[in-house]
Amino acid sequence: MHMRLHSNSNIGEAKDVVMAPRLSGRFISLSMVVMAYHQSTTRVARETTTFSVMDMLGPSLWDVWNSMGQAMSSHMVACIAVESISILEKLHSKGFVHGDVKPENFLLGQPGSPDEKKLFLIDLGLASKWKKASSSQHVEYDQRPDIFRGTIRYASVHAHLGRTGSRRDDLESLAYTLIFLIRGRLPWQGFQGDNKSFLVCKKKMATSADVLSCFCPPPFKHFLEMVTNMKFDEEPNYAKLISLFDSLIEVPASRPIRIDGALKVGQKRGRMVVNLEEEEQPKKKVRLGSPATQWISVYNARRPMKQRYHYNVADSRLHQHIEKGNEDGLYISCVASSANFWALIMDAGTGFGSQVYELSQIFLHKDWIMEQWEKNFYITAIAGATNGSSLVVMSKGTPYTQQSYKVSESFPYKWINKKWKEGFHVTSMGTAGNRWGVVMSRNAGYSDQVVELDFLYPSEGLHRRWESGYRITSSAGTPDQAAFILSIPKRKPLDETQETLRTSAFPSNHVKEKWAKNLYIASICYGRTAC
């Protein structure tokens, strides 16, 4: 058996090597610990060094793809598909996800050996647990947009967005790998710069399964659709995924890749015949949809109160609506913009004592804001228009003791995370074109806060946050992304009911229905969703 030794010590040379017997395993090459003893002429004491020992394998799928003129037949890739799925099933059954599935990490056995057509998955450097060792329960969902793990070209969209890794991510990366091996290129290759990951993720979200798999046989499209619509904690039906490729698998003698593992999956679980035209109940799509830009309104349960809304308000009409509302005892609770027109929500439940606002051609006019801070006004609502102008509302009567804000060309999660550690919480957000404005305040009344950021409406993430006790407290959207801040209040309301609504037009036809159920607009924005 061929071995390669790697030492983590520079002390002398290995004199005696004690090897454990070979461990069988399909999903990784052999890894074991070897104790090597070193002896020098000046020291009598023995020193211990740890070695990592791995099987000497053959070329990677990347190497094979290159040697074949950067194109593989669909029959060969189908064999790779079913065997890769079986390898991932075995890894997943141990409670781990790989985290970096790509052609370079699939290797064949040594040429000329009995394993030369056998597929191996290597490199567990980015592997993580999807299952808790103590309880065997799925790890909890989270999103940290500043964390990316994987290879940009093949990473799942969820990995780009910083979501906790789960089994679906390995399978999505496998789908991109398979399509790459057939097509020789993926639509998001070629992006450069510091925002490369953002641009690639945006392109992945915008590329339909039809377009991505247009040069591939139908099973590859079906596989892509199935794995990109899996839920975070969903257990993949590996046998069903393998069976998608039945029509492309040739007789054993002509198979370029051994599919022993895939056959075992079939024997163990009983292969089902998949008729994609007769699926018993179509699943609700988790991610794939037609991109759209819509109004996103958030409603909270409140005691009956007076609330008023205005939309499609031109700059020249703002003062009239605000002055009339103030005369009726109403203050602005949230603002938004669409097509350079404004939307105002005014109600009697803000608790504010007085309020000022500024309509500026600058997105968040610093001098004016600082002037109002000196007068003990605090920012309570912001919005920006596509032409770069902004509407900033500042109020007295808030619990805030200090504020900070940031304007950024990308969503400023790192800054938000830094401010969280300093005792601030997000209290307002707005956008102007693709620019983000985020306001954070001390003494906001929250015990914890999280972010949901996506290139489409993050339905699954919001529902998981709701289940964990969080409620949306701020929202904003650009033509590319939608962001939601969810918080846990220190004082929980008696009724924690919260609903969201997405509409192409301002939701004037729905607001009165919500009011009848004592649900009032708490946040509204215009941005990226899917329909």
Automatic annotation (TrEMBL):
<comment type="similarity">
    <text>Belongs to the protein kinase superfamily. CK1 Ser/Thr protein kinase family. Casein kinase I subfamily.</text>
</comment>
<dbReference type="Pfam" id="PF24289">
    <property type="entry name" value="DUF7477"/>
</dbReference>
<protein>
    <recommendedName>
        <fullName>non-specific serine/threonine protein kinase</fullName>
        <ecNumber>2.7.11.1</ecNumber>
    </recommendedName>
</protein>
<dbReference type="Pfam" id="PF00069">
    <property type="entry name" value="Pkinase"/>
</dbReference>
<dbReference type="InterPro" id="IPR011009">
    <property type="entry name" value="Kinase-like_dom_sf"/>
</dbReference>
<dbReference type="InterPro" id="IPR000719">
    <property type="entry name" value="Prot_kinase_dom"/>
</dbReference>
<dbReference type="GO" id="GO:0005524">
    <property type="term" value="F:ATP binding"/>
</dbReference>
<dbReference type="InterPro" id="IPR008271">
    <property type="entry name" value="Ser/Thr_kinase_AS"/>
</dbReference>
<feature type="domain" description="Protein kinase">
    <location>
        <begin position="1"/>
        <end position="249"/>
    </location>
</feature>
<dbReference type="InterPro" id="IPR055900">
    <property type="entry name" value="DUF7477"/>
</dbReference>
<dbReference type="InterPro" id="IPR050235">
    <property type="entry name" value="CK1_Ser-Thr_kinase"/>
</dbReference>
<dbReference type="GO" id="GO:0004674">
    <property type="term" value="F:protein serine/threonine kinase activity"/>
</dbReference>
